[in-house]
Structures are given as structure tokens and as C-alpha cells.
Amino acid sequence: MLSQERYSLIQNIINERNTVTVAELAEILDTSESTIRRDLTALDELGKIKKFFGGATKVKHNEGFFEEGVSAKENLMSAEKTEIAKYSATLINDNDFVFIDAGTTTSRLIDFIDNYKATYITNGITHARKLIHKGFNTYIIGGKIKSLTEAIVGAEGIANLRNFNFSKAFMGTNGIDAEAGFTTPDIEEAMIKETALRHSYNAFMLADSTKFRKVFPVTFSPLDKCCIITDILPDKSFYSETIIKEVNK
Predict the structure, then answer these.
(1) Fold observed for domain 3-59
(2) Helical segments of 90-173, H only
(3) Which of 21, 75, 93, 139 could form an SS bridge with 121, CB 3.0 to 4.6 Å?
């Protein structure tokens, strides 16, 4: 097999699996581990993959400032979001004081909440409407409304959150990366998320598998501050970063 053909196959395998070992590649491609190591070094130098001791991983994707609106996000990974939401709703206990972050997966969480003894606070316009329509004890923070995500942001919202101490927080994120942490495109939303997390005893990040190895401009938390609830983990190396629940495993 020619080197260029092998390079292409290796890159395809890594892009599909996110992380792979030298031994796995040697077995799949029926070649020596020394050859694979040379190939990984060459691909790393080209910026195609990221080599580490004993293997390689997919190059993380920097997503920039672009963010889709709520209507566009709502139908993405719909079945996966539903399973994440169903499991997350079971974590709410009597007398919990719960923060629910704006976002499409956290919005779906409300569809499955059945605990009327807890109290709920949110920065999501849609979330507040859904909560009161179900008859829950509900509060919404004040501040500027970001039309794209229908979230309340800004200095007033941050000041509101500083008055609370949540027993649980259910959060959303745009990107998850081992080095960058949890990231989002918007500085004001990032500040709301950061403040809510600082005032929460337990925090859960509701994120489908497409969020992993994506990086947006603003980090609002390191990974170890939240338990991640996802459909299925695309890169098992994340298990070393924090507690992760795969609802479809």
C-alpha cells in the first residue's frame, strides 16, 4: 500500500473514531506499528491529526462565532436530546432548587419533569413559559433578551443569579473539549452560565455527542465542574476529565 493511500485511510479512521491507538491502526491496515508511528508523525506535521504517545486523535474543530437560532437547533439530534432529557428529569428530587439554562436540550428536559415539589429558576423565555404551563413553582431572572437563543443575558441577569444557591443546575453548551472546556460563541451568555455554575451545588451538562471536540470562542467552565449527560460518548478519553453518563450505552 502506498504511503498516501495509507495516510488517507488513517485520517478517515481517526475522523470516524476520534481517537485510535497505534496497535489498532496496525491491525486494521495490516502493517507494522513502526510504519504507523511514522505515518502519524507525518500526518501530525501536516496538521491533519494530533499525535500522542501510543496513538492519535482527531484535530479539534474551532467553530468561531457562528451560532444557529433556536428553530434550527431544535430538530438537530432530536431523538438523542429526548433520551438525554428523559434521564436528566429523573435527577430532580423533592425540594430541589433548580436552575435550568436556556437551550434546546434543556427545554426538552421540561417536557419530562414531573416533580412539583421542586422550585425552578431559568434564564430561558421558552423555558419559563413551559414551566408555568405545567404548573411548576417558577422564577425567571431579569435582564437583556438575546433574540437568537431566547435567553436572558447581561449584567442584571448575572446580579440576579448571585443571590441564589442552587441544589442542581441543568446546563447547555455549544462545545466540549478537554483543553478548552465548555465553550459558547457569546460572551454574555458565557457569563450567565459561569455565574449559574458557581452558585450550584451539583451541575449537569446536557449535551449530545455532536458537541464533543468542538471549540467556540468563550470558555465558561472547565469540564470537571459538571457531570456530562450525553447520548453516547464519541471519544472515550473524555472519561478521564469528568463524570459522564451515556444514556444510550
Answers:
(1) Arc Repressor Mutant, subunit A (1.10.10)
(2) 104-112, 125-133, 155-161
(3) 139
